[in-house]
Amino acid sequence: MFAGKNDNNSSSIDIMKYIAAIMVIIIHVGPIFEHWPLVNHVFVNGICRVATPLFFVSSAFFVRHKMKSNPQYLKQYVKSIFKIYCFWSLVYLPLGLQYIAANFDIPLYLYPVALVIAFFYIGAYYHLWYIPALLFGLWFVDYLMKHMSKRIVYVLVILLYAFACLETHRELIANTYLLTLIDTYLGIFVTPRNGLFFAPIFITIGYVISDQDNKSTKRTLWLGMLLSLAGLIAEGTWIYYNRGHDSNALVFLAPLSYFIFKWVCTLNVTVPFNTKVLRRWSTNYYFGHLLILTFCEWFFGVIGLGSVWMQFGLMRFVLVLALTHIAVEVGEYLRIRFTSYKKAIQP
Questions:
Q1: pLDDT, tens digit, for every residue of 266-287?
Q2: Are the C-beta atoms of residues 1 and 283 closer than 8 Å to each other?
Q3: I want to staple 221 with a disulfide (CB 3.0 to 4.6 A). Which of 116, 136, 263, 271 is the partner?
Q4: CA–CA separation, 21 vs 26, rounded Å?
Q5: From CA 198, how far away is CA 194, in angstroms rounded?
Q6: Per-residue DSSP letters for 249-305?
Q7: How many Å apart are CA 186 and CA 205, to the nearest integer?
Q8: What does pTM read for this prediction?
């Protein structure tokens, strides 16, 4: 989400990340297709779920690339992203407090403790979990790569992700001990969607693609994407009829994210504008859209149209996307004007 490099495929990756950011918005404003619940579930809670894995893969891909010429780049990257994370955590602090009050039965004096734990674990607000997961996951995978063989690392991250998938596919578990283990874990740690269980497999995929040559044929990549997508659709359909605890970790997200990103890296897209603007949009869409979504929910409720807001998913999506884009551009305009003003008043 945050890194890029100047080569022939950077434009295609920027476009991919922009589409992924829109998919994240779809997940949070859903349901989109209210009258077709199965289609909505497979699309919103299945296909669109590939967005965050693609962000992990992309970030890891570029970090790995930069580290080849600058071994200290990971530390520099972590510091820069941590600053961004602190800023957005402060922005979302009021909503984070509201979220804690609505979802956790804890006394007021423990709120600071809850916020500190959330900050380092699942984010100050629920979509910010990506940053601590990314930062810990990058450190974790980099440590494993330096101290273990690649095969052992691959097996380990697959096993960790398999545990994360058990939350989604809880209905398949017949072993009482394993069920107890999962329920105990969820009771304490809330979710396996973090830097230990969820992120490492996608960060490893980014590392692997960065280290590979680009000799895979497009036919092979297309076949891999189609088979993985078919598997994801089948998995989403199964989950619709056999609800687990959540739909965060899906088995076919791993191969699908690999084949999509690998395929995107083969493209040499020419567009009549600098795709760095898409990079900026995708980052700010991701961070800012929940502010817009929360405002819209409040506003429609105040004017007595709360039921209209809840009934029309496509309207919610279009409105949140449009207002998020406007807010991002206004913010960029103000940033440029403020920077120009600071330069003008300097002696």
A1: 888 888 888 899 999 999 999 9
A2: yes
A3: 263
A4: 9
A5: 5
A6: --TTHHHHHHHHHHHHHH-----SS-THHHHHHHHHHHHHHHHHHHHHHHHHHHTT-
A7: 26
A8: 0.92
